[in-house]
């Protein structure tokens, strides 16, 4: 598993370096074409921010209880602010269940909020405190966001959303 995480961080680092590289001419592309295997990641129903036609798409596989994922999210937000027309950020769920026991529920809460159009707001609340990821905390976040609490709780417990998290984890 460590090898996969390191590979993901290397990919993000490569993409960040490519985005930050100064262009030398109008014809120069933003980045080189990534390896063909990267195009195998299905991002169709994943939460994303940034233009769909952005020259750079960063696919992040993240764990809501991981302090490194929280730091990466801050870095990605700054990239979006620097390059609002050139970068797209796609979020994929990758809870590390063995070392972060609260992460699966937090990832489920983010998807449940996504069902009501508030993924990124929930994303930010969850990452604001990696120690407040118990069910009551997540329900409080949903309340703060003005979500339909009954629908949120039903989605939080749904097998459908857990299957989406599992699918993302397998892709990662």
Walkthrough of the structure:
The chain is mainly alpha-helical and 172 residues long. It contains seven helices and three strands; from the N terminus they run αββαβααααα. Strands 1-3-2 form a three-stranded mixed β-sheet. α2 (67-82) links the parallel β2 (56-62) and β3 (87-93). The chain is globular, with a radius of gyration of 16 Å. The N and C termini lie close together (10 Å).
Keywords:
172 residues; mainly alpha; 3-stranded mixed beta sheet; 7 helices; 3 strands; 51% helix; 9% strand; globular; disordered N terminus
Write the layout of secondary structure elements.
Blueprint: H1 2-20, E1 48-49, E2 56-62, H2 67-82, E3 87-93, H3 103-114, H4 119-127, H5 135-144, H6 149-156, H7 159-171
Parallel strand pairs: 2-3
Antiparallel strand pairs: 1-3
Helix pairs in contact: 3-4, 3-5, 3-6
